[in-house]
Design a protein that fits this description.
It is built from 16 helices and 18 strands. The protein has helices at about 5-10, 25-35, 65-70, 75-90, 105-125, 135-140, 165-175, 225-235, 305-315, 370-385, 405-415, 435-440, 450-455, 460, 465-480, 485-500; strands at about 15-20, 40-45, 60, 95-105, 130-135, 155-160, 180-185, 185-195, 195-205, 210-220, 240-255, 260-265, 275-280, 280-285, 290, 325-335, 350-355, 360-365. The strands form two sheets. Strands 3, 4, 5, 6, 11, 12, 13, 14, 15 and 16 form a ten-stranded mixed β-sheet that branches. Strands 1, 2, 7, 8, 9, 10, 17 and 18 form an eight-stranded mixed β-sheet that branches. Helix 2 runs parallel beside helix 7 (about 165-175). The two termini are about 40 Å apart.
């Protein structure tokens, strides 16, 4: 993945088969799918890959237990099938995680026990393990910090876990290997129409400020919570397609929630589920579901959301957490398909939705990380029809994502040139200086934020330490980006301003 090489493809007067706007889960999945079918494919992303929602998930590859309770069997079955594909296709980025549901009555034990056994059944041959009904003593051994008062037992079930932005970067790299052109920091600014049909995308290279007009047979809008803005570039009076909802996550040290099992609380005060999930030797607590009116790339956690999670986790655990225990708070926005009637955002379906405008803009929205591959397949099927392309079958169900051996070999080459890069960036974490160089050379990392937020996850794990290490990261990046000390100072200042939003004031 070399950005300069990718940009060269925009200099030719090519007519692309498919142009994809948006470099999150769905857009990158669409680029991979389209390239595997032999279509000449371009993806442009105005910021970094997975800058928005796709790096801010609960880190779960799951069928969605609460959708089962809502009776959405179709969505759960589809998501469980996709979970199985993803764990098989990206084993180095995914893992099987055990979850415990604590229950406080015989009735709850039967209700959730039978429900989760049905969840297993729906996954069929792609099941990750058999659900077990636990005694009170067994539940306490799995969840040492659970409050034993009134505890009747628990249900153990299996789901998937993954590194969201890591998967996004690997999707980009795999799409490029399969022939796609994929560019970050290249923003769509408008459309060119011929006979009222979109025939080209106007875009701007954010780094050089150079403008391009790129011809295409089909255009896919995969911009998630920013869907409305792109739709309205095509049709200024078009109603909003997406109702954004905000979900926050708090990250704490594992000592505050010991053990290797995750916990799932099936019913919070607002009807959502609450998770406590081990991740990178920390624990992710979340999430909330707060309807919002405006979208931004750096949404802010509301005080009531922070207090909501702290209150709920403390209701179930003996090791009480306070604001001082929060290492980082991060916020994601969900691109929920707009409903005609007023309902709680927690109840809005996570099924995806595809529309085609009169001018031919294909918009794919809704869904979730787990179902990104199916969303991409639907988008490419429609793009092939709109663009009058040869009909080819989707093959992503069994396509390996990423190449772990190639990455390791390249890191070894970096270390041969400079053995000092084997040093960890901090004694508490496994990340090395060589990983920073690798991200710049082979993963299109352009700034400190790209490194500390998405290539290595330090901003999400320990925001204060990320701020402390920013100058060192800039100094390692600068020579490879051919930047000077003034760039280092500017980028450090910019990163610290952003990172302070992830730090919770006590």
């Amino acid at each position: 993945m070399n950005r300069s090489e990718q940009l060269q493809a925009l200099e030719t007067d090519t007519i692309w088969d498919i142009i994809i706007i948006g470099g999150g889960a769905t857009g990158l999945g669409t680029a991979l799918d389209a390239s595997l079918r032999g279509y000449k494919t371009l993806l442009i992303e105005g910021h970094d890959f997975a800058k928005g929602t796709s790096s801010r998930s609960t880190k779960l590859v799951h069928g969605g237990v609460r959708y089962l309770e809502q009776g959405n069997i179709k969505l759960v079955r589809e998501a469980l099938r996709e979970r199985g594909y993803l764990l098989n296709n990206a084993p180095h980025l995914t893992s099987i995680q055990t979850f415990i549901v604590p229950v406080f009555s015989w009735w709850e034990k039967m209700f959730y026990g039978l429900g989760l056994k049905f969840y297993d059944l729906l996954s069929g041959k792609l099941s990750l393990g058999d659900t077990q009904i636990l005694s009170k003593k067994e539940t306490l051994s799995h969840l040492p910090s659970i409050n034993a008062e009134k505890l009747a037992g628990g249900i153990l079930y299996y789901d998937g876990q993954f590194d969201d932005s890591g998967l996004a970067i690997e999707l980009a790299a795999t799409a490029i290997k399969k022939g796609a052109t994929v560019i970050n920091y290249c923003r769509a600014t408008g459309f060119t129409k011929t006979n009222e049909k979109i025939t080209a995308v106007e875009c701007l290279d954010v780094l050089s400020e150079k403008k391009y007009t790129i011809k295409a047979k089909a255009i896919v809008n995969a911009t998630g919570v920013f869907t409305n803005a792109v739709v309205q570039m095509d049709e200024p009076l078009q109603d909003d397609l997406v109702s954004p909802s905000q979900g926050i996550h708090l990250v704490i040290d594992a000592k505050n929630f010991p053990g290797i099992d995750a916990m799932m609380i099936p019913k919070t005060d607002d009807g959502r589920v609450l998770f406590a999930v081990p991740w990178h030797d920390k624990v992710v607590l979340g999430t909330t579901d707060t309807p919002i009116d405006t979208v931004s790339f750096e949404p802010i956690a509301l005080e009531e959301e922070i207090e909501f999670i702290i209150k709920h986790i403390n209701r179930y655990c003996t090791t009480l957490i306070t604001r001082a225990d929060i290492n980082s708070v991060y916020v994601g926005l969900r691109p929920l398909v707009k409903q005609k009637t007023q309902v709680s955002s927690a109840l809005i379906s996570r099924e995806h939705h595809l529309t085609v405008s009169p001018a031919g803009l294909i918009t794919i929205t809704g869904g979730k990380w787990t179902t990104y591959r199916k969303m991409a397949a639907d988008a490419v099927d429609n793009a092939a029809f709109i663009g009058k392309l040869n009909k080819e079958k989707c093959s992503t169900a069994h396509t390996q994502i990423g190449d772990e051996l190639e990455k390791e070999n390249r890191i070894q080459e970096i270390l041969k040139q400079d053995a000092s890069l084997a040093e960890k960036i901090h004694a508490k974490y496994p990340f090395t200086k060589a990983q920073i160089v690798y991200a710049v050379k082979y993963e299109m990392a352009i700034c400190i934020e790209d490194i500390l937020a998405r290539r290595i996850r330090l901003l999400f794990l320990d925001a204060r330490l990320a701020i402390e290490l920013a100058p060192m990261v800039a100094s390692i990046m600068a020579p490879y980006l051919e930047k000077d000390k003034s760039w280092e100072a500017f980028d450090v200042e910019k990163f610290i301003k952003l990172a302070n939003q992830y730090v919770l004031a006590h």
